[in-house]
Amino acid sequence: MIRPLYSLVLIGAQPLLRRKLRRRGAAEPGYLEHVEERFGRYEAPTAPGRLWIHAVSLGETRAAAILVDALRRAQPGLRILLTHGTATGRAEGQRLLREGDAQAWLPWDTPPAVRRFLDHFRPAAGILMETEVWPNLAAQCHARGIPLALANARLSEKSLSQARRLAGLSRPAYGALRAVWAQTQNDARRLAEAGATVQGVFGNLKFDASPDPALLAQGRDWRSTAPHPVVMFASSREGEEAQFLQAIAAHRDVQWLLVPRHPQRFDEVAALAAQAGFTVSRRSTWDGAPVPAQVWIGDSLGEMSLYYALADAALLGGSFAPLGGQNLIEAAACGCPVVMGPHTFNFSEAAQLAQQAGAAQRAASMQEGVRAAVELVRDRQARARAVEASEAFAAAHRGAADKTARAVLKLLAG
């Protein structure tokens, strides 16, 4: 009874969704493209039988890229349908497309839109990345016999509590999944409690990402010419930058690098740093080398490996406000030690393991985190140990991509 009510609420909210898309599109034009796809209306003709992979945003799309590479190594002719929910995810996903592939927005989770989506694309199977389980989507795939799986799956305690409160919706949705492949044992336990059938614990796909060697080399070259140690605030979130800028005011002998999580905020964050009294230089204006300034702004996409290589240490965005933290795996793979804030519930096990391995340390506040990062980059021996620990931590947890690819191909084979 609860799913029909949920569907009515979503149908009624469609004008609000259109308004939200127009508002988001003012900052990110990608949200204004192919708007009718959000409602299950697709114009381009398409062939059935693709493997459908849903990667809602940028992080999930990067994880999907690792899986797609592994799948194509095992089955080179595989055709992919890639769907997204955010403009940054869709832009990143374009790089993964090959001849015969397709890309679209996943529709709003109303029964008519989901029906139109499935009727149009007729996928052979569906893979949802990490957390994206929608009640109507799961129910209709189950009813049509389309195998649907959750890959690189994670579920925090907070999300499990929310699932319990909405058990009438969430439990049937998780139960409709043909398979779930969890990142960790704790994720597997929580997903099972939510009603999912967990068929494996494969680890995190992001450990299998290989940083771009050219970006690493460029970043390390720039770091070697920097007059001061470089500390990066990686994937900062709204509300955190002001704390960061206040905390660094007393540390003028460090080169600060600020990389916002969301590209639509690049201008805002650069203005915030200038208003705080810092000289600012933006990556987008550099011609061959960083331009001297007290705060560098990393305002580019696809260059996180460069930024981590440029930094001697990094503060973890999303962890100094109650946002759950960003993923620290890419930092570890690039040999960049991390200082985390108190809030890492989205990646609790990875954060704990990194801390145990010596690849990361915990700070109770932004002020404490900045002090810890400054102390680390000033102590060459301590930083060298942390770099070694970071690289070893990243190497020790690889292997999820091949395991997941084998499971996906088995699902496709029936």
Automatic annotation (TrEMBL):
Its domain of life reads Bacteria
Q: Which reaction does it catalyse?
A: lipid IVA (E. coli) + CMP-3-deoxy-beta-D-manno-octulosonate = alpha-Kdo-(2->6)-lipid IVA (E. coli) + CMP + H(+)
Tell me its EC number(s), please: 2.4.99.12
For whether the record's keyword set contains Cell membrane, the answer is yes
Q: What is its main location?
A: membrane
Q: Which UniProt keywords apply?
A: Cell membrane, Lipopolysaccharide biosynthesis, Membrane, Transferase
Which cellular compartments is it found in?
A: Cell membrane
The pathway noted for it is:
Bacterial outer membrane biogenesis; LPS core biosynthesis
The record's InterPro entries line, in alphabetical order, gives: Glycos_transf_N, Glycos_transf_N_sf, Kdotransferase
Coiled-coil parts of chain: none
Claim: Protein biosynthesis is one of the keywords in the record: no
Annotated 3-deoxy-D-manno-octulosonic-acid transferase N-terminal domain ranges read 34-209
Residue spans crossing the bilayer: none
Task: State any single GO MF term.
Answer: transferase activity
Instruction: Tell me the Pfam families matching this sequence.
Output: Glycos_transf_N
Function recorded in the entry: Involved in lipopolysaccharide (LPS) biosynthesis. Catalyzes the transfer of 3-deoxy-D-manno-octulosonate (Kdo) residue(s) from CMP-Kdo to lipid IV(A), the tetraacyldisaccharide-1,4'-bisphosphate precursor of lipid A.
Q: Which family does it belong to?
A: Belongs to the glycosyltransferase group 1 family.
Q: What is this protein called?
A: 3-deoxy-D-manno-octulosonic acid transferase
Q: Organism source for this protein?
A: Ramlibacter alkalitolerans
